[in-house]
Amino acid sequence: NITGIILTVVGLSIFNKLKYRFAEIL
């Protein structure tokens, strides 16, 4: 399913951004 793959990629990119944000805060 192409839609599922796109959602997974977008979700991972957002998760990585949030992870870097938390790393900067901590």
Automatic annotation (TrEMBL):
Q: Which domain of life is it from?
A: Bacteria
Q: What is this protein called?
A: ABC transporter permease
